């Protein structure tokens, strides 16, 4: 017959076994929770690199790819944009890396000697600097003799730090997350199909800005939009976020649109989290165009 001592020993063993399993499960759960929290709230800034050379004057030059076409540019943090001469534009045009349909507008600018020169703004669909890539970047074509090839702030303004490594002959660029608008998804919702042209204009303005890091971009194309959904759209542009943590991103988008020609009266930023019945929808914003 089993003694009371034996029964007590078995019971203690079972308790210790279950307690051990409980502790293991709890520690694994906490580890997973910390890992997931780190991925959401502790996003590390990305660092990109590009090789450089120094020309005879000691000026740094880097290779840029314009729609896949590689060319050496001067690394110039004092320049406001990517710029090059008419001869290089013709080179891109003749080799099929750009087309006349990519021309956005033409204007005049004053040169250092006081003369006027024609400047043509063109859209670069894909710009690559080392392992860093931007889409829909505005570049300036200078119609002047011997115009330099300049890589300016259009690319570099999104970075917090730039490090020059003379041993590796590389420039290292680290993102400034405080200046970035980071979203997993952005959706444009034109109230009618007549706003599609305006959607394209806004997409271009946001897509060409290095401060916006957006994963997926969608456009609503199922028309007509239900009347019930349109009732809350009072202004020309309504920016809707569904998580309080995305309020800053919504305000950044508003600022960008204000700089693109819209006014305060045109834009409304709306917090949808209290009204959204399906819970929090993080890192997602809708831009409604009326």
Textual characterization of the structure:
The structure is a single chain. By secondary structure, the protein is of the alpha/beta class. It folds into 2 domains: 131 residues, Cathepsin D, subunit A, domain 1; 110 residues. Helices cover 28% and strands 37% of the residues. The protein contains 6 helices and 15 strands. The strands form 2 sheets. Strands 1, 2, 3, 4, 5, 6, 7, 8, 9 and 10 form a 10-stranded mixed β-sheet that branches. A 5-stranded mixed β-sheet has the order 12-11-15-13-14, covered by helices on one side. A hairpin with a 2-residue loop joins strand 2 and strand 3. The longest helix has 38 residues. The radius of gyration is 27 Å and the shape is globular. About 12% of the residues have low confidence.
């Amino acid at each position: 017959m089993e003694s009371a001592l034996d029964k007590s020993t078995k019971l203690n063993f079972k308790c210790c076994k279950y307690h051990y399993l409980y502790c293991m499960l709890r520690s694994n759960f906490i580890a997973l929770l910390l890992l997931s929290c780190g991925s959401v709230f502790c996003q590390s800034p990305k660092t990109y690199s590009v090789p450089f050379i120094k020309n005879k004057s000691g000026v740094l030059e880097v290779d840029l790819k314009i729609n896949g076409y590689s060319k050496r540019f001067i690394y110039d943090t004092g320049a406001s944009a990517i710029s090059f001469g008419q001869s290089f534009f013709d080179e891109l045009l003749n080799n099929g890396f750009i087309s006349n349909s990519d021309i956005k507008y033409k204007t005049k600018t004053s040169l250092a000697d006081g003369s006027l020169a024609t400047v043509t703004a063109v859209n670069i669909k894909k710009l690559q600097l080392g392992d860093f890539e931007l889409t829909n970047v505005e570049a300036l074509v200078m119609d002047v003799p011997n115009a330099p090839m300049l890589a300016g702030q259009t690319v570099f303004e999104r970075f917090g730090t730039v490090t020059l490594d003379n041993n590796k002959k590389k420039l290292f660029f680290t993102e400034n997350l405080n200046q970035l608008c980071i979203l997993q998804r952005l959706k444009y919702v034109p109230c009618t199909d007549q706003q599609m042209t305006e959607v394209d204009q806004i997409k271009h303005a946001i897509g060409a800005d290095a401060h916006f890091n957006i994963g997926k971009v969608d456009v609503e194309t199922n028309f007509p939009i239900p009347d019930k959904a349109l009732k809350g759209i009072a202004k020309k542009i309504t920016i809707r976020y569904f998580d309080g943590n995305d309020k800053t991103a919504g305000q950044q988008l508003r600022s960008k649109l204000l700089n693109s020609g819209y006014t305060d009266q045109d834009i409304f930023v709306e917090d949808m989290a209290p009204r959204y019945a399906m819970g929090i929808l993080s890192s997602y914003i809708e831009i409604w165009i009326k």
